[in-house]
Amino acid sequence: MTRDSRDSRPSRPHLPARTALSSGASAPAATPRRHRLSLRATLVILLVSTVAVLCLLVGAVTHVSVRGQLEGQLDAQLTRAAHRAGGTGGPGAPDGPTNGEDGSSGTGSTSGTTGTSGTGADEADGGDDSGDDGATGPGGGEFELAAILVDGRVVSAAWRDTDGQVEQLGASDSTEVADVAKGLDSDEHADVKLSIGQYRVMTATDASGAVIVTGLPLTQVHSTLTRMDITLVTAGLLATALCGVAGSLIVRRTLRPLEEVSAVAGRVADMPLSHGDVALGDRVDERISHSGTEAGEVGRALNLLLDNVEGALETRQHSEESMRRFIADASHELRTPLTAIRGYSEMLRMTEDLSDRGEQSVDRMDAQSRRMTSLVEDLLLLARLDEGARDERTETDLGELVLDAAMDARVTASEHRWVLEVPEEPVTVLGNPRQLSQVIVNLLSNARKHTPADTTVTVRLRSGSGSGSGSEPGSGSGGSDSAAPSGSVGRVGILEVIDDGPGIEPEIAGRVFERFTRADAARSGGDGTTGLGLPIVKAIAEAHGGSITLESEPGRTAFILRLPLVAR
């Protein structure tokens, strides 16, 4: 379907950047939205985090404080035990004075030994830490340890078990005690890990010069701290969980008015406000808007905003209805005079002998009357579509309409190259055949009038998946309740009219589906257009539950029509 050109046509100015339009509105590139937590989740997380941090701080402070207290008590007890051991010449010895430098006592008690006793031991006072009377070796406390070092060598080392029996330390434990004692001065203590447990030891020197090592176990301190830590952690977790549950309930209850305000705003935002008779019946409940809270103030402000918007929409609707009535009435009134003008011009041509100049004048008058009639018919059609009028619709094969329109275009625009791609299987839609034919003719005429000669125009019809448009058929300003045709969601028929012309200027592309938009800025009508062809295409497509989009860049301009197919 290629025809050679013989003259040129007005060309469309080059478009420097790609432009994509949907039903007359530019479609900005979708930017990915970052997922953010809701206000309720944020508040609950902050509350739980705060409680958890406070529990952690309280637990840490409590642990440090109790540990210091327990270790302080242990150090004080160890110091008293060490001083007693050093002051009496050996651990567990009587508090009374010794009778000689060799360590033997008058009662038969031997100083410095840890496993023997004489009768004098029965009279000894072991002090407040010795446990029971008459004990020798380690003090009377459970697990208390005592060792004697002479010249750095362990002479004796023993400890008392839970039954009060004195047990000798093993060789490895004795070596550990000796190694630790060598690096300690008097009144200094250190921790040492033995096979019988971890001990804190302190050294003292008796009158004979022997080093007395006294030790107390750290097991009780550690077990007490462990039990306390477990208790604090358990209590903290319970407190955090309870705070999370209670906080979630409180926050949910507190934010419930704000959620209702948001729901009202969302429902209004989803309403089609661009055209038609719009009633904004949603309002925030008075119990919320007059509550005096922050959410109530937002609700009251939203109600006032909706009142203002509703008033503005009513004013706009009244203005549109008045304009449509005027256009419809004026168009109806103009049809009769225009028909009369055309009739008289034909009668004048047939009954009068006109000169060449008169013949040209009559032809010009007839052409202008036809152009005016076409404009009036277009205005009447737009007015009817705006009112939501729905003509009789039947199952129509778009392929036949496209073939007829393309064949006519080949004849009327032979200087263009026409490429037709129509599937063999029918592409059936539910619609008005005359209106759908006008859509196709307008699209082909637009490609013919606004591209230069030798331009290749591709007319491609195919079936695809998707939906016609987001609007229901007949959802014009008249607010018709007519339902979408069968198959409006699912399979669609797609008609593409693509040319390799220079493209459309951006400022024109943004308004190409608006009424009376023409590339001729002077609006002289020299290009034979009225600026209503594409608006009619858009109105008819939307009335049939479809859509029309534009993609334009230098070297490629595509009008894409989508109409819902009849479900099979």
Report what the structure shows.
The chain contains ten helices and 15 strands. The protein is an alpha+beta fold. A seven-stranded mixed beta sheet has the order 2-1-14-15-13-12-10, covered by helices on one side. Strands 5-4-3-8-7-6 form a six-stranded antiparallel beta sheet, sandwiched between helices. A hairpin with a 2-residue loop joins β6 and β7 (197-205). α5 runs antiparallel to α6 (356-386) and α6 packs parallel to α10. The protein starts with 18 loop residues before the first strand and ends with a strand.
Please state the overall shape, judged from the principal axes of the Cα atoms: rod-shaped
Going across the major beta sheet, what is the strand order? Answer: 2-1-14-15-13-12-10
Give the low-confidence spans: 1-30, 88-136, 469-489, 521-525
- Residue share in helix: 40-55%
Number of strand segments: 15
Distance between the termini: 33 Å
CA radius of gyration is 51 Å
Largest sheet: 7 strands, mixed
Helix vs. strand class: alpha+beta
Q: Please indicate the percent range of residues in DSSP E strands (runs of 2 or more).
A: 15-25%
Count of individual helical segments? 10
What is the mean pLDDT? 76
Element order: H for helix, E for strand: EEHEEEHEEEHHHHEHEEHEEHHEE
